[in-house]
Amino acid sequence: MSTPVLPEPEPLRALIDALRRLPSVGERTARRMAYHLLQHDLSGAVVLGQALDRATQSLQHCEQCNSFSETVLCSLCDNAQRDKSLLCIVETPADQNTVESSHGYQGLYYVLMGRLAPIEGIGPNELQFDRLLQRASGAEVEEIILATNFTAEGETTAHYLAELLRQRGKRVTRLARGVPAGSELEYVDASTMAWALQERRET
Ligand SMILES: [Zn+2]
User: Mean per-residue pLDDT for 179-201?
Assistant: First the structure.
């Protein structure tokens, strides 16, 4: 952390430190964001603060899919029109959004809220795989589609889960590689995702 030349009021320091918690935001960027909000967009800063307060207090993890929800069961899991025989496993709500945007999928989801990353200490326990396995073992689930990212960690997670799920007698498929290796699904366009779903294959 660079030592500021000017004495810094504590609330300003606290704001900069808070912004630094965001991914890819270092000291300089956090400082620029803080100055921007305080100098040019004070009302935006208030809205941001209130939105953070509201989100942290009112959101929980859906009992069934683990995604964010205001209610015990999210609206998607609660939708009787969805095909309960299909369960698509994604890393994040952003990835879930990409799959959904393809309009090629009518099943349900399970959101891992991460991926296996042993170096960072994220293993099966941290991702609550027991909860996922319980969900996936339900009699109504016929096929599980692994839609983790095509990154090294996403592939490792997919391989690991495929093994566990096959042992439970489930049909396990993986998205087709319509995107270059190393890609994150969040940035894949809807038509590529639709193709990857349609062309999914047994793992
Ligand atoms: Zn849900």
Answer: 84
CA of 82 to the centre of ligand 1 (A): 11
Distance 65 CA to ligand 1 centre (A): 4
Q: Phi and psi of 24, rounded to 5°?
A: 65, 15
Contact 87, 144 (CB under 8 A): yes
Q: Between β-strands 83-90 and 201-202, what pairing exists: parallel, antiparallel or unpaired?
A: unpaired
Cα(73)–Cα(62) distance, integer angstroms: 5
pLDDT digits (tens, 9 = 90+) for 10-48: 999 999 999 999 999 999 999 999 999 999 999 999 999
Domain residue spans in the chain? 10-58, 80-202
Domain 80-202 has CATH 3.30.230.10: no
- CA–centroid distance, 115 to ligand 1, in Å, is 19
What dotted CATH number matches 10-58?
1.10.8.420
- For the stretch 105-161, pLDDT in tens is 999 999 999 999 989 999 999 999 999 999 999 999 999 999 999 999 999 999 999
- For residues 137-175, b (16+ Cβ closer than 10 Å) or e, as one string? eeeebebbbbbbbbbebbbebbebbbebbeeeebebbbb
* In contact, 157 and 112? CB cutoff 8 Å: yes
SS3 173: strand
C-alpha 64 to ligand 1 mean position (Å): 5
